Amino acid sequence: MKILLLLFLLIAIITPHGTNALNIVVAGGTGRLGRVLISSLLSPLPSGKVENYVTVLSRNCFLASAPNRVSADFGFLGQKFVDKYANNMAMRDWDGGDLLDIVGKDWVGWEEVLEKADVVVNLCGGFTIQREQAQQRLSDAIRSTETRNNHVIKQIIIAPTDEVIPTLSPVAISAKVKRLAQCEDIANAGKDVSCLRVGLVVPDAQAQASGGKWCTGSDFAQLCIEKINA
After folding, report:
1. Do residues 207 and 215 lie in contact, with contact meaning Cβ atoms separated by under 8 Å?
2. Per-residue pLDDT of the chain (230 residues; tens, 9 = 90+)
3. Interhelix angle for 32-41 vs 217-229, to 10°?
4. Residue-number span of the structural domain to which 54 is assigned
5. Bridge-partner residues for 193, per DSSP?
6. Number of domains into which the chain is organized
7. What is the pTM of this model?
8. Could you say which DSSP state residue 159 is in?
9. CA distance 113 to 97
10. Which residues form the signal peptide (predicted)?
11. Distance, C-alpha 225 to centroid of its chain
């Protein structure tokens, strides 16, 4: 009996507790903001350990993880980035909300990545109907997974502020403002949802010159992580 107690104590001492470790799914995480956020989520602790695990949903994982970028039409992290975080990051093809625009070969069954998810961050960009479709697909899949597993998944919906839309895409501005609001309405039907609006994310020097109007990549990542941990 004493030997068993000693064994249990030894296991408790040497086993990492990882109480803050999260399984995070990032949809649309192959863009510039995705790279910044993933790097922050997977930054090591003072001990050198990385606690979180990130799964990136991409319309084409092959192109997103290639050694060099071959198309500006799809997101790109690059082989070096993927290899750097290989122990704590996986990539998964998905349909991106548009079944007519599937380019990855293994998108069927992408919903399985939600089974162990604690948080889903939606970074899908653009202002087309596909943005709404992607949000609807995520929300439907999350709701189904929550019902099946009796486990609430936190959703973080990220979008630009209305004020910066003219700078990002100066055509049909009112329609784009409405679309972003519609995406948030879709998400807000969920159980645990946070909507984060951010200004332009620019290099440090530009952010400082803007007087707080714009933010740096580090600022953006910190805002996201605060929402994730709230």
Report:
1. yes
2. 445 444 443 434 333 444 579 999 999 999 999 999 999 999 998 888 999 999 999 988 999 999 999 888 888 999 999 999 999 999 999 987 655 555 555 678 899 999 999 999 999 988 988 899 999 999 999 999 999 999 999 999 999 999 999 999 999 999 999 999 999 999 999 999 999 999 999 988 888 888 777 899 999 999 999 999 98
3. 60
4. 21-229
5. 155
6. 1
7. 0.87
8. E
9. 16
10. 1-21
11. 11
Torsion of CA 219, 175, 119, 110, to 10 degrees: -130
Nearest CA-CA partner of 111 in 27, 30, 41: 27
Query: Does a structural domain hold residue 2?
Result: no
Quick check: is 8 in a domain? no
The Cα–Cα gap between 191 and 154 comes to 8
- Is 205 inside any structural domain? yes
Query: Could you tell me the two tokens for 16?
Result: 């990492």
CATH number at residue 141: 3.40.50.720
Residues forming beta bridges with residue 154, ordered by sequence position: 119
Q: Name 33's bridge partners.
A: none
Q: Say if residues 201 and 174 touch (Cβ distance below 8 Å).
A: no
Classify the C-alpha dihedral 166-211-184-89 as positive or negative.
Answer: positive
Structure tokens at 126: 């653009």
